[in-house]
Amino acid sequence: MADLAEGADDGDLIAAPAKIPVPESVAEAVRTLIRWAGDDPEREGLVDTPARVARAWKEYCAGYGEDPAVHLARVFEEVGGYDEIVLLNDIPFQSHCEHHMAPIIGKASIAYLPRDKVVGISKIARVLHGFARRLQVQERLTAEVADCIWEHLQPHGVAVVIEASHSCMTARGVRTPGVGMVTSRMMGVFRSDERSRAEVLKLMGY
Ligand SMILES: Nc1nc2c(ncn2[C@@H]2O[C@H](COP(=O)(O)OP(=O)(O)OP(=O)(O)O)[C@@H](O)[C@H]2O)c(=O)[nH]1
Ligand SMILES: [Zn+2]
């Protein structure tokens, strides 16, 4: 318990991060948006909102401040000759679409067929979040995750399948809730060998 942030107790195990300063120009941009939406940014309930919105966007877009490949730098080579698929299934993620800056909420299944080395499995989810915490289109998110693993682990194959719901389609525009968009990227044996592809898709539940 000694290494918990000051003030934390059993009911507050995750300390709030320190608040970053918000430039006045950013806060003013949010006030302009509130006015444009039809409300008064000076009323009591909205006074602190511009700073909150600005910080929230820094958090949604934290991926710009990192290179997701760093998570794949530490590998393990003693795997007892393991040469089968490694799969992380149904990883929940959130992103924002670059067209409307609206939430994309979904899950990703990411698999690779190792060549001599594996990576700590949490790192696969970290790579996903590093690319998801940016303004995205689902197709590019899928490709970026797959390419990063392909390039940095040099496995025999990589398979990424992402299924997500786009708020720009559910909450506005065509307003069609319940629609899931599915994208996939198959590389190496998962692209060239039909049986390997069928096996990984079956493990993923497709
Ligand atoms: N392919 C793809 N399209 C996306 C993604 N996120 C949002 N979109 C779509 O991007 C398109 C933008 O179309 P526009 O016609 O420029 O924008 P819009 O007038 O707001 O379109 P509507 O959403 O149809 O009202 C929409 O069809 C969105 O559904 C994504 O990740 N991939
Ligand atoms: Zn959109």
Provide structural commentary:
This protein has 206 residues and is α+β, with helices and mostly antiparallel strands. It has 2 domains: 24-60, no CATH class; 70-204, GTP Cyclohydrolase I, domain 2 (2-Layer Sandwich). 35% of the residues lie in helices and 23% in strands. It is built from 7 helices and 7 strands. It has helices at 24-37, 49-60, 121-132, 138-153, 167-170, 189-192, 194-204, and strands spanning 75-76, 86-97, 103-113, 118-119, 135-136, 157-166, 181-188. A 5-stranded mixed sheet has the order 5-2-3-6-7, sandwiched between helices. Strands 1-4 form a two-stranded antiparallel ribbon. A hairpin with a 5-residue loop joins strand 2 (86-97) and strand 3 (103-113). Helix 3 (121-132) runs antiparallel to helix 4 (138-153). The longest helix is centred in the last third of the chain and has 16 residues, at 138-153. The chain is elongated and about 65 Å long. The model is unreliable at 1-8 (pLDDT under 50). The protein binds guanosine-5'-triphosphate and zinc ion. Zinc ion binds next to loops.
Short synopsis of the structure:
The chain is α+β, with helices and mostly antiparallel strands. Helix content is 35%, strand content 23%.
Helix percentage range: 25-40%
- Rounded to the nearest angstrom, the distance between the terminal CA atoms is 43 Å
CATH architecture of the largest domain: 2-Layer Sandwich
CATH topology of the largest domain: GTP Cyclohydrolase I, domain 2
Structural class: alpha+beta
β-strand amount: 15-25%
* Overall pLDDT metric: 93
Strand adjacency order, main sheet: 5-2-3-6-7
**Rough shape?**
elongated
EC number: 3.5.4.16
Subunit structure: Homopolymer. Toroid-shaped homodecamer, composed of two pentamers of five dimers.
Domain GTP cyclohydrolase I: 27-204
Protein name: GTP cyclohydrolase 1
